Amino acid sequence: MSIAHAVAAAVSFTWLGMVIAISFIEAPLKFRAPGVSLQTGLSIGRLVFRALNTVEAALAMVLLVVLVADPPSPTVIVAVGVVVVVLAAQLLVVRPRLTRRSDLVLAGPAGPHEVDQPTRRSPVHYSYVGLELVKIAALVISGAAALAGA
């Protein structure tokens, strides 16, 4: 196995761990902590996901550079391509919609005639979770295939 392929595997599995830890452990648990309001949880979530997405973009760049430097198998290339496309969809399509929705909650009601704030998850939230699941599968495949040299 080349150093580039080992780096690709390490980056894939590091990224995988970050997504699982933040999206599926930290994010839902913060809303169950005593004393954490919806507004506080959303504010924390925005900061955490902004940081995660920044690191994800950097990891995507590392993977792309490594793949260009020493092209691996088609399996790794396709899996990394899926990861990059999913991340782009999350950043460019889904996150802006989630941000607009959380802006409404964080702003609070403007007056007695204000439309009720959203109180349940939107379909956009579920699309983000669905994309996270696709990203997880693609990261597992890219990491395993890079390790196996497949």
UniProtKB/TrEMBL annotation:
Spans through the membrane: 6-27, 47-69, 75-94
Subcellular location: Membrane
GO cellular component, one term: membrane
Principal subcellular localization: membrane
All residue ranges annotated as the TMEM205-like domain in the record: 14-100
Pfam families recorded: DUF4149 (PF13664)
Keyword terms: Membrane, Transmembrane, Transmembrane helix
Alphabetized InterPro entries for the sequence: TMEM205-like
Highest taxon above the source species: Bacteria
Protein name: DUF4149 domain-containing protein
